[in-house]
Structures are given as C-alpha cells and as structure tokens.
Amino acid sequence: xxQLVESGGGxxxxxxxxxxxxxxSRVIYSRSxxxxxxxxxxxxxxxxxxxxGSDGTTSYVDSVKGRFTISQDNAESTLYxxxxxxxxxxxxxxxxxxYHVAWWSRLCTLESSRYPYWGQGTQVxxxx
Length: 128
Fold this sequence. Notes:
By secondary structure, the protein is mainly β. The protein has one helix and eleven strands, in the order βββαββββββββ. The strands form two sheets. Strands 2, 4, 5, 6, 9, 10 and 11 form a seven-stranded mixed beta sheet that branches. A hairpin with a 6-residue loop joins β4 (33-40) and β5 (47-53).
C-alpha cells in the first residue's frame, strides 16, 4: 500500500499551466509533518521545488517563485502543486514526499535526503 500517489502530469506548451495532486495516507497526517514537491530530469540531481508544513508555512526554490504554488486540502488528504508560466526547463519527473517533525517545528527543508516517504512520480513535459 502506497503512502503517497501523484497525478496530474502531462504535456503542455511553454507558458501553460498544470496542477499536480498527491494523495496522502493517514500515516502521513497522523503526526506533524512536512510535505514537498521534488523534480528530476535524466542525468540531473533531484531538486527540491516547494515544501509546506502542517501549519501551512511554505518554501520555494528561487527558480519557481511567483510561478508555482504549493497548497494542501487536509479534509481530502491531498497535496497540490499549481504550476503556471511553465518553461521547457521545468520538464522533469515530479515527486511528492513527506517526513514527520516535532510539533514545534516551523520550517520544512527542500533537501531530499530528509524525506523518507516518496510517491512514484508524475511526468511533466513542457515544449517550446
């Protein structure tokens, strides 16, 4: 049984938009958590894109600020990544991930090594 399942990837023209979804299990939401979106292209290192905490605090990598928005719907146990003004360099496999934190934790890292829970990924392709 999977803890995280991504969907919503696809192919779009540059300047277009996509919304990725990640369904999370009760294992994730049973404790305070951080959740994030990561991406990886062939031959390149995995890159942290955005993160969000149990309290809604968000972080973004500089290259997507103003274009991507991370959000969550706790009632539906779903994480989202709204991607606008997409560029060809955004092309990658996108993964959602999560880790548990102490209740007093305020910041969520974008370092992939911190995240033990991972989804299978969804492909995003942006053409010029």
